[in-house]
Amino acid sequence: xxxxxxxxxxxxxxxxxxxxxxxxxxxxxxxxxxxxxxxxxxxxxxxxxxxxxxxxxxxxxxxxxxxxxxxxxxxxxxxxxxxxxxxxxxxxxxxxxxxxxxxxxxxxxxxxxxxxxxxxxxxxxxxxxxxx
Length: 132
Hints:
This protein is of the alpha/beta class and 132 residues long. The chain has a single domain (18-121), classed as Oxidized Rhodanese, domain 1 (3-Layer(aba) Sandwich), CATH 3.40.250. The chain is built from six helices and five strands, in the order H-E-H-E-H-E-H-E-H-E-H. It has helices at residues 8-16, 24-30, 44-50, 64-68, 93-105, 115-121, and strands at 20-22, 36-40, 57-58, 84-88, 110-112. The protein has a five-stranded parallel β-sheet with strand order 1-5-4-2-3. The N and C termini lie far apart (50 Å).
């Protein structure tokens, strides 16, 4: 097998070196902040299986660039708000790459450094899809 020019781990490390990373405890403190939107980019099956951060917005990673771009036919108004956006995935790898890409587009965002797994380990609040 031909070696890759850059590994996924190297891409994540480069992204993390230039983006805003939110520590888990700081993220937990943001849950009820009306000026913060926590964006979950995990697959819908991950959210169903593991639960999700209360009040988080689900935005599949494959659509993020289109959802934040006001010139895209897929633009979502939520991303036009003057709020702080904190993205997360399960471990912080996908969200680091996502936020680096959004930063390249000129969209101001941060990511939850240790992802949803770090959130759960720290005792952050979690809702399950069947919670009422």
